[in-house]
Design goal:
Blueprint lengths: L3 H12 L27 H17 L5 H14 L6 H13 L3 H21 L7 H5 L1
Helix pairs in contact: 1-2, 1-5, 2-4
Length: about 130
């Protein structure tokens, strides 16, 4: 997602309102067992990631309203007092580079619905999404 308009909309419409639906730690520089942020499958993927990082930096300026609002929510979600701008900028760009606006919105809505279903049923663990949604 290198388009500045999509990046802006994704931050405003998805990341800020659905910050609690994202496992932010997975998008840090350490990645996770399934994702290495520095391992690209192609030159095109590396370019997409670089352009997305640039768009994020332009759309989420350091100390701007979007940065402050998202940083506060991400810090709460990750159990930290604060998150640094470089970490947040990189995490946002890694997250956005790997998806489209519509895919991210669908995943966020599904995550919110599953969380609500689990809470309503008093579940702390599920083995199928159907358990929370049925």
């Amino acid at each position: 997602m290198r388009n500045r308009i999509d990046v802006r909309k994704s931050i405003d419409d998805i990341l800020i309102p659905y910050a609690d639906c994202i496992c932010w730690e997975d998008f840090g520089s350490a990645g996770n067992p399934c994702y290495n942020p520095n391992d690209f499958s192609s030159a095109a993927e590396e370019e997409e990631t670089a352009f997305t990082l640039a768009a994020v930096q332009l759309e989420m300026r350091k100390y701007g309203n979007k940065h402050k609002e998202l940083a506060k929510k991400v810090a709460k979600q990750t159990g930290n007092k604060y998150v640094t701008y470089p970490w947040l900028r990189d995490a946002v760009s890694r997250l956005l580079a790997s998806t489209t606006y519509d895919e991210l919105l669908s995943m966020s809505r599904l995550s919110r619905a599953v969380k609500a279903g689990m809470q309503a049923k008093g579940l702390t663990e599920i083995h199928s999404i159907d358990e929370a949604l049925s």
